[in-house]
Amino acid sequence: MYTVLIVDDESDILDLVEHSLSKAGFDVIGCLNTSTVKQILDEEPIDLIIMDRNLPGIEGSAFVTHLREDGYIQPVIYLSAKDSNEDILKEFEQGGDDYITKPFNLELLIARAKVVIKRSKKETEVLTFRDINYHTASKKLYVEKEEVTLTQLEHALLLEFLRNPDILLDRQTLLEHVWENADHTRTKTVNVAIKRLKEKIDPKGKKAYIRSVRGEGYILG
Question: What would the DSSP string read from start to end of the chain?
Answer without folding.
Answer: --EEEEE-S-HHHHHHHHHHHHHTT-EEEEESSSTTHHHHHHHS---EEEEESEETTEEHHHHHHHHHHTT----EEEEES---HHHHHHHHHTT-SEEEESS--HHHHHHHHHHHHHHHHHHH-EEEETTEEEETTTTEEEETTEEE---HHHHHHHHHHHTSTT--B-HHHHHHHH-TTGGGS-HHHHHHHHHHHHHHH-TTS-S--EEEETTTEEEE-
